Predict the structure of SWIM-type domain-containing protein.
Amino acid sequence: MINIDDIESEYDSNDSFELKSQSESNEDGNSKTRRPKFSVFNEQTDMKKSKFEVGQKFTSVIIFRLVVRIQAIMDGRDVYFKKNDTRWVRVKCRSCDWQLFGSKMQDENTFQIKTLSDEHTCGRVFYNKNMTSRLASKLFVDEVRKTPSMTVHELMTKVTEELNVDFNLKQGYRTLRKVRDTIQGSHDKQYTMLESFCGEWRRTTMGSTVFVETDVDEDGVSRFRRLYMCLEPIKRGFLAGCRKWIGLDGCFLKGPYGGQLLSAVGMDGDNKMFPSAMSIVGVENYDNWSWFLGLLVQDLKIEDSSCWCIMTGKQKGLLQAVRDKLLQAEHRCCVQHLYTNFKQMHRGLALKDRLWRCARASYMTQFKAEMEMMKQESKNAYAWLDEKDRILGHGLISRLTGLDCDILRMEKNRETMSKYEGLLCPAIFDILEKAKKEQCMCICYYAGTMKYQICCPFGDQFVVDLGSKTCTCRKWQLRGIPCGHAVAAIYRRRDKPEKNVAPIYWKTTYMKSYEPVLNPINGPNLWAPIDLPPMKPPKYGKSPGRPKKARKKEPDEDRNRQSRVNPSKPHKVSKVGTKMSCSLCKKYGHNRRSCPEKNQETAPVEREEMGIWIRKLVGPVHNKQMLSEMKQGIPVLVQLLLMKPGHSKKGCKLRQWTFRNSLDMTGELGLNRAATDSLINPYETASNNTESGHLNSNTGDKFIHTVQG
């Protein structure tokens, strides 16, 4: 064992280490001895590769404890703190005599190792009590910062591989939460920084609409209510290169304070989503949707809504808010949301395909024909769809920062499209190529004044007007891309279909959408302070149980293969998610064992004891006598076995009695079910025969068997 006192005495006895200077002499002429120079622990570089030395210095006892735990985990040693306070710390090993002692230096706010034992004599341990979530969060904070989307299982794998220590799932969840709180700050702290966050966006992007509304509770505390964000570059890009189409939807936010994210998106020239505005509210209702749409109409400068198309789901309050704010706009429901409600009562691939055919119908005659086909397949599905509207047509700051990073990908889209050579955007080019293949089956006749009659297979005929760029199938008017009929007429005119595509799909228009530059913003440490009272998060009532973070999937949604295929029987489809059917009442939701009508049909009679005198048959003579009785039409045990209701053959108590007495009446007599069905009622026969004394004609042992209904 090495002690620091021995090292200091060596330095004191060696004059070569005693350096005197004029500044080190006091008034009496006595000189001070220079202390030996020991290594100093560096928190930035030595945290994961430190090695203890006698005399090693640490900035504080907290750092010393942290290093001891990290070194114990990396070396696989089971150490514990025998004495642990702010002045002295003694560490010992549970499996050997290794120990470490450190204390605070005199006249300095520095912690130093004073005593250090030799190397450990014990082996490594895999389970280490020093491995806690707090320690893991400090060791792997840089790893999570580099990979923000790291999952719990990925973190557990990294900890186990690097440190070779046991690390369970609960520790992984707690570690990841603490690391993210360290990087992003806690949820409560982010609400206090929200005003500064909005001010930074207004400073960097002039003209942006970014603000937050608050409520003042009874105690006079300002609490978050809702937030709206629509950046100026997004506005200009949307108006310059996107079609007049807006999709509205909302989703739940995962966190301790809940809330919902309302979003509005557009479609660029390549049929890709283009973000336009978003809002964070407490709950999805008419008031919040109306407030959000009112601000959106102002930012996008929608004065005449008759030329706009709005697509939504069936969110609470959204339909009425669209009618109030965008009265003249074409309002269409998302078919995916419609099918989610449709499939709850009308399942099957045939009905699903028919629903989408109705949605894709571009003219009224085709729509009615598809509806008639659905009516033939299911009248209930037709009635349900006929009642609906016609389908004709077609942490808070950390979350906002993440959305901001997604918006910054606009630069990538701009760079990718700049390298693309062609008049049309790639997705539109593929659609037009498909229309070119369809025109091969069309026969075109010129009628004059740039009008053409198109004859298609199966007797369909359409009229194409190249002057007004219309087709009676209405696909050209709806999409702005020539359909197969229009392409046939364009080729007949010796023209190029690309020139007849709407300018919204041109590459030059697409570049205008992504031309505005979204300026980056500084970090929280450079945000301008706001002279307002700190904002508090909204009041949140915690629900019972563990919060569900995964989205609830529909029964027919594709899940992992294990849920659809039984591992023990990979050649058979699993019955998970299928409805059970009853073989008695032919209804779904139960089987015959739990059928509610079973007890009604086979209700047992009042319990009564029936004394049935049965001859004890031992030898072949008695068997022959029983055979003669059966030939005379006297049903005995066999009828009771096969005709008693309320149980099966395996559970029949009479059959079990015959086995115990070595009787097999069916085998002896050669009877089958058809023969026994023609016999008379066994209860009436048994009672009649008992009253007449037929079964008591012979002497023999008598047995009484009780039959319960």
About this structure: The first strand starts at residue 2 and ends at 3. The mean pLDDT is 75. Residues 190-387 form one domain.
